[in-house]
Design a protein that fits this description.
Blueprint (H helix, E strand, L loop, with lengths): L1 H6 L3 H13 L4 E9 L5 E7 L7 E4 L17 E5 L3 H4 L4 H6 L2 E10 L5 E9 L8 H43 L4 H11 L7 E8 L2 E9 L5 H8 L2 H12 L5 E4 L18 E9 L2 E10 L9 H34 L11 E8 L10 E7 L4 E8 L4 H19 L4 H15 L5 E10 L5 E8 L4 E4 L5 E4 L18 E5 L4 E5 L1 H4 L13 H6 L6 H16 L6 E8 L15
Antiparallel strand pairs: 1-2, 1-6, 2-3, 4-5, 5-6, 7-8, 7-11, 9-10, 10-11, 12-21, 13-14, 14-15, 15-16, 16-19, 17-18, 17-20, 20-21
Length: 576
């Protein structure tokens, strides 16, 4: 028997074998086993009166209960006659009587969650109680109890492992994104149906709690469920009170009356749990789980509290990231011109994409400068990121701007910038390209270009062809004192578009290791005929899509020589 107790995976199957064993004892005509709730109410009964037959399982009728006084002591064997008052009050009386038993020997055993059971053996008339029968019944009870305890523990271990695995996977999934909206949706989706049949996430805002994510097991119930999560009474009255509590709250039965999950609601539930989302001492909101299962089968409170904490930390991290990202974007914008100037005969546009997930200010910069007799475009890149790069970005841009306002040629302006960088003794280098224009005949512009170690400028001709604009190479700025730089010349005619960009565009890298630089000319050519605003945004999007995002900032500055009449502009002449 003990070997069976260690190997059986189901108490019911084990009971069948043990019932056969007891029915084989002399004088035994029936074996029954009845399970009782802690209150004494009978849950169900199994009985068998013939060997090698499956015991019949019968749910106890309502009202059937243990009427033999206090619950029997586990392991204690007792016997009584069928005609006794105790026997007549028992739920098993009809089974015993139908089998022809006149005497009963039984023993009790303890089960999980306060339940207990009694194994009873009915003896036929004219037979005395066999020797050691009581001992055998007690042994059967010990074996069943041991097997049940082992199975219950194994199931609990499996549930714990499943919950731990869910918590680990939830952390991975929620930490996989620093986007607030995506993180909130991951919280809701990860928990349905693994934790509950429905999940609602509310966040605190200036106007109180607001529903930000929801998920329900039934696809057809999604809208009704989300509407329930926005119910005024629930959001304005119930949730604020529950969120103020340090621990989670369980609502069931009559406690759900008047809520959007009560019996009179479109979305009914048997139980609801609400846990506050707290991280770093701040209340962020609440996570609500809605259950259609028996309230006794809800996840443990500690598990729900752990899940809520992990969700809160993920939401808090995403929120802080977004806040800092906005600060970086704001600072970056202060290092760039607020608007581009309006220049007769020219159309200007610029695009800038912040690419660093580490949230450090980048060194990419651009500007458009009107001199006394010329007009210049400049794009540059300071090595590295952070405060030092930001300071050097300001120095480089404003130095070039001042020099170009005085019509200094591109090579001379970059050479003077090199001297300023060497004087500042910066440990970082700078690259840059400057394009200066002066009006020529027939609406064209004569161009002078100088490049200091920067990606080559391009020109998208009016006929749709793409060509280099100026040379490549040139020494990096801020590295050597003895600095010389050459200039090249070109002509930009009506309809031509000059494009200056940083290496965030050219070095955008695909998952297979290819660089966008190899496709740059084709991508620019595909934008032929479009205004500069669409050229810069189209080129930036193409590079971002090619590299599945970028770790480097991207700056693009485009200038088109107008064809015919001067193009319409807004009052501010803002860049795109």
């Amino acid at each position: 028997m003990w070997r069976l107790a260690q190997t059986s995976t189901d108490v019911t199957a084990l009971s069948e074998q043990l019932y056969d064993l007891l029915l084989g004892r002399p004088g035994v005509v029936v074996v029954s086993g009845t399970r009782f709730a802690p209150s004494g109410a009978a849950r169900y009964m199994r009985s068998s009166s013939r060997p090698d037959t499956r015991p019949e399982r019968v749910l106890a009728p309502p009202g059937d209960a243990w009427k033999g006084g206090p619950a029997p002591v586990p392991g204690l064997v007792r016997q009584f006659a069928l005609r006794s008052e105790h026997a007549r009050a028992r739920p098993e009386y009809g089974v015993w009587r139908a089998a022809g038993a006149v005497r009963v020997v039984e023993c009790a055993l303890a089960l999980e969650e306060g339940d207990w059971a009694v194994v009873s053996v009915g003896l036929a008339a004219g037979r005395s109680v066999p020797a050691r029968l009581g001992l055998r019944v007690a042994q059967v009870c010990d074996v069943v109890a041991a097997c049940n305890d082992r199975i219950v523990q194994e199931r609990e271990n499996a549930r714990v492992q499943a919950r731990d695995a869910l918590l680990a996977e939830a952390s991975l999934q929620m930490d996989a994104s620093l986007d607030v909206g995506e993180t909130l949706q991951r919280v809701a989706r990860m928990t349905v149906p693994a934790v509950a049949e429905g999940c609602l996430v509310h966040l605190c805002g200036p106007g109180g709690l607001t529903l930000v994510a929801s998920a329900h097991l039934a696809a057809g119930a999604q809208r009704r469920f989300a509407a329930a999560g926005e119910d005024g009474t629930w959001v304005d009255d119930v949730l604020p009170k529950l969120s103020a509590l340090r621990e989670g709250t369980v609502l069931s039965g009559g406690e759900l009356a008047g809520t959007p999950f009560g019996p009179a609601s479109e979305v009914t539930a048997r139980a609801v749990t609400v846990n506050p989302l707290r991280a770093r001492g701040r209340l962020l909101g609440t996570v609500t789980f809605v259950y259609e299962r028996d309230p006794s089968r809800l996840p443990p409170p500690l598990f729900l509290a752990d899940l809520a904490l992990r969700a809160a930390l993920a939401i808090d991290n995403a929120t802080l990231y977004e806040e800092r990202r906005q600060h970086v974007v704001s600072l970056q914008q202060h290092l760039l011109p607020a608007v581009l100037p309006t220049v007769p005969g020219l159309e200007l546009a610029a695009a800038y994409e912040v690419g660093d997930a580490a949230l450090e200010v980048g060194g990419d910069f651009y500007d458009a400068v009107s001199g006394r007799h010329s007009f210049s475009l400049l794009v540059g890149d300071v090595c590295g990121r952070g405060a030092e790069a930001a300071a050097l970005t300001g120095l480089a841009r404003h130095t070039l701007r001042t020099l170009l306002e005085d019509d200094l040629p591109p090579a001379a302006a970059l050479t003077r910038l090199n001297r300023a960088l060497r004087t500042a003794a910066s440990r970082k280098f700078v690259t840059g390209v400057v394009l200066s224009l002066v009006p020529a005949a027939d609406g064209a512009f004569a161009a002078r270009i100088a490049n200091a170690g920067h990606p080559q400028a391009l020109v998208l001709r009016a006929d749709g062809t793409v060509a280099p604009l100026g040379g490549t190479g040139g020494l990096l700025l801020g590295v050597v004192d003895d600095y010389e730089l050459a200039e090249t010349t070109d002509v930009l005619r009506p309809g031509d578009t000059a494009v200056l960009l940083t290496d965030g565009i050219t070095e955008s890298r695909s998952p297979d290791g290819a660089f966008f630089e190899d496709r740059l000319s084709a991508a620019l050519g595909a934008l032929a005929g479009l205004p500069p605003a669409e050229v810069v945004t189209g080129l930036a999007r193409a590079a971002l899509g090619f590299g599945r995002g970028s770790a480097d900032d991207m700056a693009v500055l485009a200038m088109r020589v107008a064809s015919g009449a001067e193009p319409d502009r807004n009052e501010e002449g803002k860049a795109s």
